[in-house]
Amino acid sequence: MRTVVFDAPPATSAAHAWMPSSPCGPGCIDAIDEVGPARVAARLAGIAGLLLSYPIAHTVTPRGKRAPLQRGYARLLLGCLGLRLRVVDHRVAAGERGVVDEGDTALAPAGFGAADRGVLVVAGHISWTDIVALASVQPLGFVARADMVDWPLIGNLAKLMRVIPIERESLRGLPGVVAAIGARLAAGERIGVFPEGTTWCGRAYGTIRPALFQAAVDTRTPVQPVRLRYLDRHGVPCTVPAFVGVDTFASSARRVLRSRGMVAEVVLEPVLEPGADRRELARRCEAAVRGAAHDALDGTEWIEAGHTRVQDPSLATDAPEVRRPRRRPVLRGRRSTAAAR
Which keywords, in A-to-Z order, does the entry hold (predicted)? Predict the structure, then answer.
């Protein structure tokens, strides 16, 4: 066993007590093998071609046939970012494990739920690449930071995917976001959420907050827990794609584009029925996403930054907004030698 110490920068003050903040920063980012400038240029050219052609392809494709188109473009975009997709399905019969790697064979039509019913897809949040990885499994809408539509590369895609914007600084806007999610779920759509509320490095993680689960409870919509992680070319979990700390989109994108041999692994856990209590549903979902079965996959001990736990906000529009004092956290955890190989 060896100890891994994450000396993270202080969490910044939040606009209100609910707003999550991650202490992850540059010290969390691993070194990784890199490709040369020519490969980076080729990847950028491929991304540009996809982003220019997709709006046209989307417009000319009949609505009923857009799902395969969207999934195909997402997989191509993931490949241009230098990432392979690996899907692990834990929903298969007991004693079996469905694993499909696009580097070895054509991906099976894995999905997040029944075709004729909405589903709330819940995952931990590591990077902006999470959206591309999940969309590569099956097209879905997302709840995402409101300024994403202004980002280069993926802003236009966010608009076409009908992203539900959320202003994390505005607690008063939360009921409207929950209502929008509920309406889309009731219409039979798949909606992805990252209820940690911010990005983490992939080894440390935040608490799954209950608020957005209210939409699933209100509409009786099932929840699909997803374990999402990134592996280097040796199969070891890595933090290179993490969008944390002082990262800008440009600096994060450069790091991803220069990486060699990374894999985005999407693990589909058994679907959960919503029940009647969003807090209880959030706890069940967190157990699925962070449970002991995950540790069995790689021997990694996950680190929970408990200092960011705050009380779930009321969904009332008159909930008070208060400021939280600065803290200087240090995350400590251990990783097994098996995971380090």
Answer: Acyltransferase, Lipid biosynthesis, Lipid metabolism, Transferase
HEC per residue, 77-117: HHHHCCEEEEEEECCCCCCCCEEEECCCCCCCCCCCCCCCC
Q: What is the pLDDT of residues 12-63, one digit of tens each?
A: 445 555 567 778 888 888 888 999 999 999 999 999 999 889 989 989 999 8
232 and 261 Cβ atoms separated by less than 8 Å: yes
What is the spatial distance between Cα 187 and Cα 153, in angstroms, rounded to a whole number?
A: 29
Helix extents (H) in 226-315? 249-258, 278-290, 292-298
Amino acid at 131: I
DSSP reduced 3-state for 168? coil
- With a CB cutoff of 8 Å and minimum separation 6, the contacts of 199 are 22, 24, 125, 126, 127, 242, 243, 244
150 compared with 268, residue with greater pLDDT:
268
DSSP type of residue 16: S
In the DSSP assignment, the letter for residue 330 is -
Q: Which residue has the tokens 């806007």?
A: 173
Q: Who's near 335: CB < 8 A, 6+ residues apart?
A: 1, 2, 4, 203, 299, 300, 301
Length of the chain (residues): 341
Mean pLDDT of the chain: 77
DSSP annotation of 285:
H
**Alpha-carbon gap, residue 102 to 79, rounded angstroms:** 10
What does residue 145 show for φ and ψ, rounded to 5 degrees?
-55, 140
Rounded (5°) CA angle 48-262-336? 155
What does 179-234 look like in DSSP terms, one character per residue?
HHHHHHHHTT-EEEE-TT-S---SSEE-PPPSGGGHHHHHHT--EEEEEEEEE-TT
Q: For residues 120 and 117, what is the distance between their CA atoms, to the nearest angstrom?
A: 10
Pair of tokens at residue 77: 């975009």
